[in-house]
Input
Amino acid sequence: MPDHTVIITVAGVVAYQSPDQMTGAVRAAIVRWAPEAVLLDMADVSVIDTAGVGALLDSHRTAGWAGIPITLINVGTFLLGQLRETGITALMAVLPDELAAPDVVDATASA
Output
């Protein structure tokens, strides 16, 4: 794992009314901290709809332009199934639990 990693906690319902919060948090983290990697902690996500999936894709694209990988961590079984069905797991790494990283900056994006 890279030495300088940002963890963004995503919580609640990631749906049509809230996807900009996640993408905005990813963009802000990239600009503010210039991390080597971004982890999106999905442990507290209860629901994700097509707008939320779009936000994940937008976040992936934004980070990709900066050469920064995004990894989804703490993904529950139900959410993992949704992400597999939409093809997200083919684009981004998905880890079952958070890995400890030195020099971590924690940001929060609540839906």
Remarks:
- Helices lie at 19-33, 50-65, 77-86, 88-91.
- The CA atoms of residues 12 and 45 lie 5 Å apart.
